[in-house]
Amino acid sequence: MDNKFTVVTFGCWLNKADSDLVITKLKLLGWEYVEDIDSADTIVINTCAVREEAERNELKLLAELSKKYPSKRIIVTGCLTRVRPAAIRESSPNAVIVTSHGVESIDEIVGVVIMCMFTMIGP
Fold first, then answer.
1. Which residues have a Cβ under 8 Å from the Cβ of 41 and sit 6 or more positions away?
2. What pLDDT, in 10s, does the model give residues 47-103?
3. Which helix (H) or strand (E) holds 42?
4. For 44, phi and psi rounded to 5 degrees?
5. If we measure between CA atoms, which residue out of 24, 90, 25 comes closest to residue 76?
6. What φ, ψ does residue 58 adopt, rounded to 5°?
7. CA-to-CA distance for 93 and 105, rounded, in angstroms?
8. How far apart are CA 64 and CA 66, in angstroms?
9. pTM score above 0.90
């Protein structure tokens, strides 16, 4: 696997800012950011739990990604990880869940992505 990643962001401008920080830090470490999920080896999903409709869309996307791309690394972060971790695990059993949220977790998320580079997650 290469070091290509993408970030899918749900929610408010704070989530967008957090996702931008993840992108910046990984690019500084030599990872290649790609816009499309097909080209990525690692997919970071930054979730939101404010609206029920968003939760449904996020869980649906996680299930679809897990089924369509069983060999890709999926990392889930954001506020949904704190309130619905069981639903995330049900939708995407092989996803890595980073339960902290906000700017303080950016280094943790980046660290998880880097660890995943050395560990194949999935069937």
1. 1, 2, 3, 4, 5, 72, 73
2. 988 888 889 999 999 999 999 999 898 999 888 998 999 999 999 998 988 876 555
3. strand 42-47
4. -100, 125
5. 90
6. -65, -45
7. 22
8. 6
9. no
Looking at residue 31, the DSSP 8-state letter turns out to be P
SS3 63: helix
* Model pLDDT, residue 1: 54
**How far is the CA of 66 from the CAs of 13, 57, 75, in angstroms?**
26, 14, 11
Q: Are 105 and 31 in contact (CB under 8 A)?
A: no
Q: Could you tell me if 63 and 92 are in contact, meaning their C-beta atoms sit under 8 angstroms apart?
A: yes
Q: How far is CA 97 from the centre of its chain?
A: 8
Amino acid identity of 79? C
